[in-house]
Amino acid sequence: MSVSPDPDVSTRDATGAHASAGGRPPAPPRTGVSRGELAMTVLLGVLGVYLLLDAANIAIPGSSNTIGPRFFPYLIGGVVLATALALGFRVLRGDRGPADESEDVDPDAPTSWVAVGTIAAAFLGQALLINVVGWPLAVTLMFAVVAWSLGARGVVRPLLAGGVLAVVVWIVFVKGLGVALPGGVLLELATSWF
Amino acid sequence: MGALSDLLGGFADALTPVNLLFALLGVVLGTAVGVLPGIGPAMTVALLLPVTYTLEPTTAFIMFAGIYYGGMYGGSTTSILLNTPGESSSIMTALEGNLMAKSGRGAAALATAAIGSFVAGTIATLLLALVAPVVVDLAIGITPADYFALAVLAFVAVATVLGASPLRGLASLGVGLYLGLVGTDVLTGQERFTVGVPQLSDGIDVVVVAVGLFAVGETLYVASRLRRGPVEVMAASGSYLTRADLRRSWKPWLRGTALGFPLGALPAGGAEIPTFLSYAAERKLTKHPEEFGRGAIEGVAGPEAANNAAAAGVLVPLLTLGLPTSATAAIILAAFQGYGIQPGPTLLSTESSLVWTLIASLLIGNFMLLVLNLPLAGVWVKLLRIPRPYLYAGILLFASLGCYAVNADPLDLVLLLVIGLLGFAMRRYGWPVAPAVIGLILGPVAETNLRRALAISSGDLGVLVDTWFSRIVLALAVLALVLPVVLRAVRGRRATPEELQAGEGLRHRETVGAPPADEEER
Predict the structure, then answer these.
(1) pLDDT of res. B12
(2) In terms of CA atoms, which chain B residue is nearest residue A45?
(3) Which A residues, 64 through 83, put their C-beta within 8 Å of a C-beta on chain B?
(4) Which UniProt keywords apply (chain B) (predicted)?
(5) Which chain A residue has the Cα nearest residue B412?
(6) pTM attached to this predicted model
């Protein structure tokens, strides 16, 4: 049978890693200015400024007498900057965005930056390895690292699962559907009779 | 009727053995991937896009039709059988569906969802076939300025009406519009914002952005807050629909369809609001009010029908105007463009057989779903139990496949990761993701039409409000921008699904923090 949906089954603190305390009385949800949200807003503002400044560098062909390739970037830059200013105002007043809900997300869990970093690094490594060792081997390694960082146990099973999946997918897509995907020396040799 | 004979022609094309096989393949793949937790309809379509790369357009879209409806159906199975919140359009289905499953009526909940999806999908797809030619007739005389106004309305509506926070929606939209600017300007051939990287001069591929924001972003976000411990899947137990269940379900199915299709078809579409409205309506109209909050079948039948009807409704602006109003529609538009087909008022005449085959395939796929899903419920339950480390590692594997297959360039994968990190940050801080995808795909279309309009008027901005059509549409856009802010100031935030379930009605409540005592019911 299923467990009760009560949120207080969780023993974790409702405050996330980034919930820095503000000078306001505590309300039921998190309060205070979120540094992460502020950073997002600042980045948005930087994007707006970049759009406005770099739009001036877009070359305009001499012949055009109506609006050219700069107009829309200016428009978007203005909208982005205005949005960043308005959002910054709200965030500074303690407004927080509702974090996304998903089936496998524990809304009360603190953010695990280690897992995010590990998975991002694994994905980057895979991107750089593809043209060296081939897609199946590169994604097998990524698969195993990601599975480990999400709590898979054992050494052999994640590697085996990733390897089998990668080879099967490679055969289906490359041999069956004709998608271009480097297989690596061994696999391409082994399947050259297809 | 012209539409009817066209549709029959579509059936003739779709009903060949090979095409039926691809429709079946699409339906099964779509449902299987859609069932997986953490994967919504948009991610299903984005991840399965590479499967269709090497097929010829007609076959690809037949398969796509199955994937689209299969993904929608799979999502509702997940939300009924998993006791955790999922994507926004199936939240309302989950409210009562969870409770039904918990009290041993899971099979009935799945059955009313399946049959409701079939009824709503069939009616709404037939309506799509009837309405599309009419809209095309109206849209033939549309000016570039009118089109720009429509795009602005779609932007504003997607950014402000759908999300919980209008400003964050606008922020997300702005990011998407920026990503759409990167590349070579179509009209003058000038490079914009490419920062000197040659690969960027072709623009950023929509598949990379969609897979990055949805698949990679979602995986990183789930990894950051993974729900530990065993997975709780509820059994699809109990009897299928009894006669009493059926009697209580058919009206909500029809009402849900009536709400879902028109609201989905509006340029301000999406499935979230119709499911919300449908739940509220069923709660008000039910003869068994005591069951709401304990697993009322009407609360599953109505929203699920509304969800599927809206999914068909979204195809009306997409096929007739080239206007995507949901993230899923934006990805389908990208698939069209991948084949060099630009949806718009001329699509129905230039690619007539393709469109009608697509619509016929939607009907066929819908029927296949009904036949497949009642007996296959047990298989889907098994899929829900996949250990999460392997599930998300697998999602990343397929993300890498889909993205690399576009250009065979590892740089795309690095870009995918950067956009994935952006998607993670957006989820983490409550920025909705859908506006970014729509901004990316619709931004260049809006710009082209704006510049065409201004070229005709030789730079006079007055051309933008020259026709009554553009005046009304732009006024609606301004309304959509201002109304949420005003409502928030006057009435407080919108009721959450849980409050709706508790019977507090669909009204806006007092400001945040104030006691929810007043402003209830009517």
Answers:
(1) 86
(2) B171
(3) 64-69, 71-73, 76, 79-80, 83
(4) Membrane, Transmembrane, Transmembrane helix
(5) A127
(6) 0.84
What type of residue is B380? W
Which residues in chain A are closer than 8 Å to B408, comparing Cβ atoms? 180-181
Domain locations in chain B?
2-501
Residues of A in contact with B38 (CB under 8 A): 102-104
Give tens-digit pLDDT for A121-163.
999 999 999 988 999 999 999 999 999 999 888 889 999 999 9
Residue numbers in A near B104 (CB within 8 A): none
Predicted confidence (pLDDT) per residue in B279-325, tens digit: 888 888 888 888 887 888 888 899 999 999 999 999 999 999 888 88
User: Searching chain A, which residue's CA lies closest to the CA of residue B427?
Assistant: A100
**Among A30, A42, A34, residue whose Cα is nearest residue A88:** A42
The interface predicted TM-score of the complex, written ipTM, equals 0.83
Spell out the residues 6+ positions from residue B71 whose beta carbon is closer than 8 angstroms to its own.
B30, B31, B33, B34, B40, B41, B44, B45, B328
Q: Kindly state the tokens that stand for B295.
A: 């697993």
Minimal CA separation from B213 to chain A, in Å: 13
- Quick check: A17 contacting B, CB < 8 Å? no
* Between B430 and A65, residue with greater pLDDT: B430
Query: Between the CA of residue B107 and those of A174, B363, B373, B476, what are the distances in Å?
Result: 40, 24, 11, 43
Q: Do B188 and A68 touch (CB under 8 A)?
A: yes
The DSSP secondary-structure symbol of B314 reads: T
Short-list B30, B3, B13, B64, CA closest to B335: B64
Coil, strand, or helix at residue A99? coil
